[in-house]
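Exercise (ungraded).
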Amino acid sequence: MVVFSGDFDRAMASFIIANGAAAMGSEVTMFFTFWGLNVLRKDENVETDKTFIERMFGRMMPRGAEKLGLSRMNMGGLGQKMIKGIMKKKNVSSLSELIEQAQDAGVRLVACSMSMDLMGIQKEELIDGVEEGGVASYLSSAEEGNVNLFI
Amino acid sequence: MVVFSGDFDRAMASFIIANGAAAMGSEVTMFFTFWGLNVLRKDENVETDKTFIERMFGRMMPRGAEKLGLSRMNMGGLGQKMIKGIMKKKNVSSLSELIEQAQDAGVRLVACSMSMDLMGIQKEELIDGVEEGGVASYLSSAEEGNVNLFI
Amino acid sequence: MVVFSGDFDRAMASFIIANGAAAMGSEVTMFFTFWGLNVLRKDENVETDKTFIERMFGRMMPRGAEKLGLSRMNMGGLGQKMIKGIMKKKNVSSLSELIEQAQDAGVRLVACSMSMDLMGIQKEELIDGVEEGGVASYLSSAEEGNVNLFI
């Protein structure tokens, strides 16, 4: 599964599918590229050595699962707050909880090394337990899998 | 096939692929989640018992196939009108016609029960012939299929 | 692989995956529909016989790989310039170079004939070496492939 998008709703969908598949006994690998990297960022600022542009990029992008916006009807964060409120009332796991569940269930979370380089995101900025890997590593998992999605 | 998006153009693409595959003799299941549910809504208002927030959400989201916007160059609906005009002139089936064709060809349309719950969409609001199902139901179809897409 | 999107970042991702797969010895077919067609357009204006609406559409859509915008944080082209600057500094191939590499590696580039008709894009406007094909042609490649993505 490739997670390209950094939208809250798409990230939710990807983890719900991944956790469902893991619960059914499948091996699941999620490969995070481009905006998808933001899903895996820690929510605090991490001291790193970056160029000015990397620092700017880092500041403009959402820091972690709880900061992502909706792909539509975000309305400056209002739509996202509404969705989160409903999720809480209906006892749906939050995105951070889904990520934890995924890690507990043995879902492999792989951050695309090329995207990390491009966006100036360093390993210390990502949550624990995330591997780094290239396109070749994604493709070899994809070849073996029988369900492949680009989200 | 997972239809996550509620954009007119992506919905068109998903039904064109689904109908093509059905015509070639494949079994097709389309699983509608999040914004994709809007594709299956009836275009009239249906009397339902909802909370205030659910009612608001329902009113803000497009009601059915003919109300969806383009994912880009929508320009307040103008782009979408242009595309529809061209489609009519070129005798391309409208989205509602494509949905009907899909149902006639035996394509299974499944609405994600968790998304329906989250967005407060009830079964009576969806067009006839749509099943309800969970992630597990999607995954078991996906495991069997040899073409899986996330649109 | 279906390339539906005409965003710079998604187009990059699709060619990086395609070229990676080709390098690992797989046969790769990329099928370009809707906005994805813009990725294959030549960057100069081509003399064609079009209706007024087709001409307007053609003018409003980006002409070729170097004109595409980012799916988010495009900021009127600034975000895209920043990304390109970083790519150059890090010696990442540009999108046009990736397309050339794909063609050299034998990746088949197929333009969806129905989308070309709808958007009024003619074969002369696309870069050399692109085939035209319908949904059936896509589906028969997809059935054979073991990795299918919709980007």
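Further reading is listed at the end of the chapter. For now, observe: The helical segments of chain A are 8-23, 52-60, 78-89, 95-104, 113-119, 135-144. The longest strand of chain A covers residues 108-112.
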